[in-house]
Amino acid sequence: MTRSPKTTRRDFLKSASITSAVFGAPVAQLTAEETRRASDNKGRPRNIIFMVSDGMNHGALSLAHHHHARVHAKDTHWTRLYREHPVVRCLAETFSANSLVTDSAAAASAWGGGHRVENGRLNIGPDGQAYAPLQTKLKQARILTGLVSTATITHATPAGFAVNVDSRGKEDEIARQYAERGVSVLLGGGTKFFNDDLRETFRKNGYDVFNARGELQAAASLAPRPVLGTFADGYLPYSIDWAGDESLQKKVPTLTEMAQFAVDRLSALPNDGWFLMVEGARIDHCGHANDAAGSIHEQLAFDDAVGVMLEYVSGRDDTLLIITTDHGCGGLQLNGISGKAGQPMAPGIYGGTNQSFDHLRDFRMSLEAMNNKAGGLSGPPLRDFLKVQTGIELTDAELKTAQGLKSHDLARVFAGYHGVSWTSGNHTGDLVEFCAFGPGSHLFPAFVKNDDVHRLLLQVYGIA
Q: Which of 3, 26, 230, 352 has CB 3.0 to 4.6 Å from 337, enough for a Cys bridge?
């Protein structure tokens, strides 16, 4: 591999000036320590934090940035990383072995196993050969692995770093392989895939095992042991729904809390380094459902975790932070709207866009939750319910479209008010965002293929 040239302070400041022109704010001056780290990024880290905003295209990143700026008058942590730190930024190709549009299993296998496999498979090649995942290779070097996700912890993305399975749907088998292979930290949903016998196996293997937010918080003060924490039978709830439900808040930790716990626990265990994957999984699910408000809240919850991880690495010289996505989903974009919300769009005249987009700040629950809570409503009661949950009062024609409370129908109705539209409910073939900050970041080129990342991670650790 040809290494990327060393980034000089002048090169970085030139790049930052361009970034400032795009984002419309003055460039933050590098501190002496940041200048030193910009020139010392050839160092070898002990630890890597690999953060995945699953299903995020540039539209999802943009919407969260716009919303946060308008509602809270702040940049996102991800934007601030680009603005204020000497980050290496890449464009990533996401193909699978058999498609220009990947699924999460093949994408995670490219990262975790170093080979592009067919969609639906986890580190299993076309002839049934098993590719050794990152967990196996790192364990041989006494480097620990942690996996955190807001999906089931046995879902495709975390599984791609640790297992070999011919179908991503075999989540019971994935759970069994986690125990067999000794993944040190497992936090997310998916209680139903860890039966009583398997949970007892984890305990016998020296794990703390728990399933509630309070147990996670209390465990922070306990002697360090490997940990299995599952906080929902299936996926963890959408962030927008969690925020409005005290019972969920008592049961389910945030992604930020899980990520912070994982870092602390991995650091406390005996090791020669560690690797932590942190996945905001439900951005992808919002893409499939065409849920604009849900997507924004999921992306901002992920960004909260980015902020905590960035704070951790910024005070150290032994940890590399990577932030990326495996593929786009849904193709969402904020579109220009002319005049008042709901009026036809006139080319080049978008005076109503800001006010329309601001409708999203009034959404109180996901489209999925609306369907679950109002499935039996129709007519005026349904109109009233939707107005309370979104701030939008639908016309009779719109109410008729929304009647079945199917997410894509709701998305189409609401798009006329907030301006966010979708190309489909499927994954997309976008080139996606990939960035690295800290020691070892110089190894990542400006354009990277997903199956190259595995080799680069091993090279960062010095075990290639």
A: 352
In this predicted structure, the answer to whether residue 30 has a pLDDT above a threshold of 90 is: no
> Cβ of 245: how many Cβ atoms within 10 Å?
14
Residue pair 286/366 in contact by the 8 Å Cβ criterion: yes
Q: What is the dotted CATH code of the domain comprising 43-332+426-461? A: 3.40.720.10
pLDDT of 338 reads: 76
Question: Nearest to residue 166, comparing CAs of 134, 137, 125?
Answer: 125
Q: Where are the domains of the chain?
A: 43-332+426-461, 334-421
Q: Is 189 helix (H, G, I), strand (E, B) or coil?
A: strand
User: Of the residues 53, 104, 109, 421, which is catalytic?
Assistant: 104
Query: Above 50 in pLDDT, residue 14?
Result: no
56: exposed, middle or buried (Cβ count in 10 Å: 0-12, 13-18, 19+): buried
SS3 for 144? strand
Q: Which of 362, 350, 354, 360 is nearest to 415 (CA)?
A: 360
46-84 per-position pLDDT tens digit:
999 999 999 999 999 999 999 999 999 999 999 999 999
Question: Which of 243, 359, 250, 261 lies closest to 301 in space, CA to CA?
Answer: 243
Tell me how far apart the alpha carbons of residues 326 and 328 are, in angstroms, rounded to a whole number: 7
| The 3-state secondary structure of 48-116, one letter per residue | EEEEEECCCCHHHHHHHHHHHHHHHCCCCHHHHHHHHCCCEEEEEECCCCCCCCCCHHHHHHHHHHCCC
Question: Catalytic residue at 104?
Answer: yes
What pTM did the predictor assign?
0.90
